[in-house]
């Protein structure tokens, strides 16, 4: 079959996989290929056991796979035949050298650019899909257009705003799609061509075009604003616990002001995920390199508040369990950074687990999807401890809670809302503590069952303190 366009995506991860599957599903006239250096991942994309858990994604993939959606490790050959290349490789925070802990590690991006250069023999549009620091496009442009073979690459920024767990819905019906390019004739032509892909199923007015730097900066800004809301409400949760106010009521009361809005006001153990922290650190680093110290400090505070919230959660457990957790069995309900994903990148559960293990607690982790990642993440933590510190994983929450002193809810999985807490209470040691770090349970009911209940951001329901 002759396809209208050949679209390639380099990087088959949480962003590239779902985004390209949606494009292929909605646009059967395009050939969409996704490549990755990771062979296992590519193999998994070809089965019904996809490498990422995302509700509804398998159906989308199955509709298009083999028709106009292909997964491959043939990177160079795929680059050669592509008209438009989306770059969706990982951009973690740098762990070494200049900017360590803040700047983005661009080695994967640069390697990708060099591969594109090596394999190309015709003009192409290169689309930045990963979250990148502002002005990365310029660096990409320099590498790519340094060729002396007369090949022209037009760089377009098209940041992804999908959230994990709701990726299919977000891709199908996004608030907006953002496409930035150079304000030149060829730049505008390229961004129109990329916009046309999305206009196949997204209303025209939601496809926003801008200059390339605005587009790059908007992605960092959107994540920074969302994270800032969570840190703001989390800071208030501490005040609420100390005063008798209820953070859920405060959130509702302010959220009805249409200027504020009601989204992203759930107080929690802290935000996680691959984007928020990384993007804010990026913003901080950019501000510092521009000499904007006050701006850098302003955004850094959002992260500090998040760290504080994680520590505060564990300190609260400690304080209310007679200042010792040593040898006590704690069931951690949830390890994923949010519900409906197996992703554990930057999950608050990791830091909470680490602190609980440092307190010599006997930790049991249960999670519907994230146990495999939790095991990998905690491996170095466990090997750093002596034999008397214990960690285990349990798929069944009832078994995890059996004989436990406390349950700590860390991820807002629906699975945890529908459990029989009377049965759980009966199997626990007494007093049985429940720390609801996501406020997903009915605290009054739990208290009536007999639990010592510690919600987040409101007064505890307890018989003893
Ligand atoms: C985020 C952005 O929402 C998305 O637009 C961007 O493309 C990638 O980063 P994601 O990290 O997948 O998406 O999840 P999100 O739903 O934003 O949640 C991030 C974290 O904040 C989670 O740990 C979540 O539990 C937490 N959160 C969210 C809260 O603690 N309270 C809230 O009210 C909302
Ligand atoms: P994101 O959440 O941004 O999608 P992931 O880590 O889930 O990040 O996915 C990025 C993917 O990019 C990984 O599967 C990784 O193997 C892949 N990748 C990194 N560098 C390259 C490269 N040079 N060529 C092809 N794939 C790459």
Layout of secondary structure:
Elements lengths: L4 E6 L5 H11 L3 E6 L3 H7 L11 H8 L4 E4 L2 H7 L2 E4 L19 H13 L4 E5 L7 H9 L8 E5 L9 H6 L4 E5 L3 H14 L8 E5 H32 L3 H9 L20 H14 L3 H28 L8 E5 L14 H11 L3 E5 L4 H13 L6 E4 L3 H5 L4 E4 L4 H4 L3 H7 L5 E4 L6 H7 L2 E4 L10
Parallel strand pairs: 1-2, 1-4, 2-3, 4-5, 5-6, 7-8, 9-10, 9-12, 10-11, 12-13, 13-14
Antiparallel strand pairs: 6-7
Helix pairs in contact: 1-3, 4-5, 9-11, 9-12, 11-12, 12-13, 13-14
Adenosine-5'-diphosphate binds next to helix 5.
Describe the model.
The protein is α/β, with parallel strands linked by helices and 465 residues long. The chain folds into two domains: 5-202, 3-Layer(aba) Sandwich (Rossmann fold); 304-455, Rossmann fold (3-Layer(aba) Sandwich), CATH 3.40.50. The chain contains 18 helices and 14 strands. The strands form two sheets. The protein has an eight-stranded mixed beta sheet with strand order 3-2-1-4-5-6-7-8, with helices on both faces. Strands 11-10-9-12-13-14 form a six-stranded parallel beta sheet, sandwiched between helices. The mean pLDDT is 95. Uridine-5'-diphosphate-xylopyranose binds next to helix 9.
């Amino acid at each position: 079959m002759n396809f209208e366009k050949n679209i390639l995506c380099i990087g088959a991860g949480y962003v590239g996989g779902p985004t390209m599957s949606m494009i292929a599903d909605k646009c059967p006239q395009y050939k969409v290929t996704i490549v990755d250096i990771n062979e296992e991942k590519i193999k998994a994309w070809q089965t019904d056991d996809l490498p990422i858990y995302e509700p509804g994604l398998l159906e989308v993939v199955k509709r298009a796979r083999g028709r106009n959606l292909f997964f491959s490790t043939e990177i160079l050959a795929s680059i050669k035949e592509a008209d438009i290349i989306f770059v969706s490789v990982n951009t973690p925070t740098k762990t070494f050298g200049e900017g360590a802990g803040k700047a983005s590690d661009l080695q994967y991006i640069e390697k990708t650019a060099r591969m594109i250069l090596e394999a190309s023999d015709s003009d192409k549009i290169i689309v930045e899909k990963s979250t990148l620091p502002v002005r990365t496009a310029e660096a990409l442009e320099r590498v790519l257009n340094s060729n002396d073979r007369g090949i022209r690459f037009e760089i377009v920024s098209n940041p992804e705003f999908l959230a994990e767990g709701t990726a299919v819905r977000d891709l199908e019906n996004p608030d907006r799609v953002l496409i930035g390019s150079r304000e030149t004739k060829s730049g505008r032509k390229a961004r129109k061509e990329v916009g046309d892909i999305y206009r196949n199923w997204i209303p025209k007015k939601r496809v926003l075009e801008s200059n390339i730097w605005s587009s790059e900066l908007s992605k960092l800004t959107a994540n920074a604003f969302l994270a800032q809301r969570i840190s703001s409400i989390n800071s208030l949760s501490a005040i609420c616990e100390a005063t008798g106010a209820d953070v859920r009521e405060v959130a509702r009361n302010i959220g009805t002001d249409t200027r504020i809005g009601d989204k992203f006001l759930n107080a929690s153990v802290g935000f996680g995920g691959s984007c928020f922290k990384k993007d804010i650190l990026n913003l901080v680093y950019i501000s510092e390199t521009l000499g904007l110290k006050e701006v850098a400090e302003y955004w850094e505070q959002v992260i500090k508040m998040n760290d504080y919230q994680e520590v505060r959660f564990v300190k609260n457990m400690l304080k209310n369990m007679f200042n010792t957790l040593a040898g006590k069995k704690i069931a951690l309900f949830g390890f994923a950074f949010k519900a409906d994903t197996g992703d554990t990148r930057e999950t608050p559960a990791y830091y909470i687990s680490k602190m609980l293990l440092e307190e010599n607690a006997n930790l049991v982790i249960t999670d519907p999807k994230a146990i495999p990642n939790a095991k990998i993440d905690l491996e170095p933590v466990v090997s750093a401890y002596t034999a008397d510190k214990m960690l285990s994983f349990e798929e069944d929450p009832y078994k995890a809670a059996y004989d436990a002193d406390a349950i700590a809810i860390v991820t807002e999985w629906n699975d945890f809302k529908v459990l029989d807490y009377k049965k759980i209470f009966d199997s626990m040691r007494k007093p049985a503590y429940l720390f609801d770090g996501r406020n997903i349970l009915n605290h009054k009911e739990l208290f009536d069952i007999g639990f010592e209940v510690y919600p987040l951001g409101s007064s505890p329901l307890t018989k003893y303190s």
